[in-house]
Every structure is written in structure tokens, then in C-alpha cells.
Amino acid sequence: MLLMAATATAQTAYPRTADETIRKVFEDLFSNLEELMDTYEQSEPEYYRKIDSVISPWIDYDSIARGVMGRKYYTMATEEQRQRFLETFKGSLVETYGKSLLGVEDPDFELEGSESGNGTGSSAQIRQTLFSATGRVVVIYSMGQADDGRWQVKNVILEGINLGRTFRNQFARSAQEYSEDLDKVINNWSPQA
Q1: What pLDDT was estimated at residue 116?
Q2: How far is it, in rounded angstroms, from Cα 22 to Cα 109?
Q3: Which residue from 37, 73, 98, 115 lies 20 to 30 Å from 6 (Cα-Cα)?
């Protein structure tokens, strides 16, 4: 009974819907953008740590990394290789995302979402249009609801480019290039979407 009450309390602490989750993440980022830029000028590692602390609770890195490796290479990989790839992949995405925020001026966004149950849980696609002084970008987030009630990003389509598919193809090409030596693939990973 106590466990059920704790679970219910934890679930109510999260945004209730997928679009509320995306809204929260971007409001947190954009409201602290000036402070983040100051941090970048003082310490790049601290800047990326702060970006990570805002976005990572809302991204299902395990699922994404497993999908990027693909069934064949995920099955071939040792548990240590899977964990190393997860950490490498996460770090590279946080850094790539952090770099994309540099130079963004006067950001704003609009959301459109559709949520639907899939029989085994909840899923949603949220369309976001990001606006800044430098232009407009359309992003579609595929999201799923974790057991703890938290909505998490499972894939991103950026201006029509499916990043999950792009990274999976890149991993497969790299595996072929390195004769399926997964240690070399992981050691040389760099997302070039």
C-alpha cells in the first residue's frame, strides 16, 4: 500500500501529458538560456552538464541507443559494450544539442500534439515549431510513457529527417567499416545526422 502511494505521488510530480513535458523542458531551457550561455563561456563541461540535467530525465536513452545499435549489433554486444555505447551516445547527443543552442536569440515555440494509447501503454507524437531570430525549425517528437508515469522522447524527426533511422544507418555503416568490431564503432562514434 505504501509503495502504491509513493508511486502515485511520484507519477503526479511529472507533467501529465506528452505536450506538457515538451513545454516544461523548453520553458526550463529558454528561461535559463542567458545563464547557460554565461556558463558555456566559463566552462564547457559545466554547460553540457547543465543541459544534460534539464533534458535527460525526459529522454529514453536506453531505448534510443538500443534502436541505434539495431537488433543484430545489440545482440552481438556485451553488456559492457552496450553500456559504453549508451554513455557515448548520450554524451554526443547532449553535446550536439548544446552546440545547437549556442547563438539562439529570442527563442519561442508552438506545440501541436496527438496522444493515443497503443494497448500496452501510452504513446504520442508532438509537433513543435521552434522560432528564433535566425529562423524556424519543425521538430516531431515520438514519445512514450514510462512505468513511473513520466513521458520520454523515443525518437526525433528534425525537418523531415528521422534521427533514429539516420543514427541506426550510421551505426551499421560504421560496423561494416570496422569489420563488426563494436569496440572500434563505439570508440569512433560521432553523430553526423
Answers
A1: 58
A2: 10
A3: 115
CB 60 within 8 A of CB 144: yes
Q: Starting at the earlier edge strand, list the strands of the sheet with 161-162.
A: 108-117, 122-132, 135-145, 151-158, 161-162
Backbone angles phi, psi at 146, to 5 degrees: -75, 170
How many Cβ atoms from other residues are within 10 Å of residue 16's Cβ?
Answer: 11
| Angle (CA) 62 65 68, round 5° | 150
**Residue 169 above 50 pLDDT?**
yes
pLDDT in tens, 35-89: 888 889 899 999 999 999 999 999 999 999 999 999 999 999 999 999 999 999 9
Q: What share of the chain is helix, strand, coil (3-state, %, to 5)?
A: 60, 20, 20
At 40, list the grid cell: 558555456
Nine-digit cell at 189? 562514434
Whether the model clears a pTM of 0.85, i.e. scores above it, the answer is: no
**What rounded mean pLDDT belongs to the chain?**
87
* Nearest by Cα to 116 from 18, 44, 6, 7: 18
Task: Give yes or no for a contact between 142 and 125, defined as CB atoms under 8 angstroms apart.
Answer: yes
